[in-house]
Design brief:
With 107 residues, this protein is α/β, with parallel strands linked by helices. The chain contains four helices and five strands, in the order βαβαβαββα.
Length: 107
């Protein structure tokens, strides 16, 4: 977990994504190589967009209920929420520039 990201769990997930601030949730696992590649870019985006975007990371191995509820079939999967509603889903690793493009409409 980076300095600018928050940890999402089955217990706090609804509170984290329920904010009126857009929230990007990264569904990941420790053993997933592409997931690890996303750590740096996601932490940078979280820091650069502080107050405009929340970036949360949810470990699918430790929080299987939430991953199943959102039908996360492959990781990394990143879902953007606004007011608790899924607005966009990104599956697979992306560069920071690609993420910025995907998030432009939300920040």
């Amino acid at each position: 977990m980076g300095d600018n990201t928050v940890e999402a769990t089955d217990q706090n997930f609804t509170d984290i994504v329920g904010s009126d601030t857009p929230t990007l949730v990264d569904f990941w696992a420790e053993w997933c190589g592409p997931c690890k590649m996303m750590n740096g870019p996601l932490d940078e985006l979280a820091g650069e967009n502080s107050g405009k975007l929340t970036v949360a990371k949810l470990n699918v191995d430790e929080n299987q209920n939430t991953a199943m509820n959102f039908e996360v079939m492959s990781i990394p999967t990143m879902i953007i929420f606004k007011d608790g509603v899924e607005k966009k889903r990104l599956v697979g690793a992306r560069s920071k520039a690609q993420l910025e493009g995907e998030l432009a409409e939300f920040v």
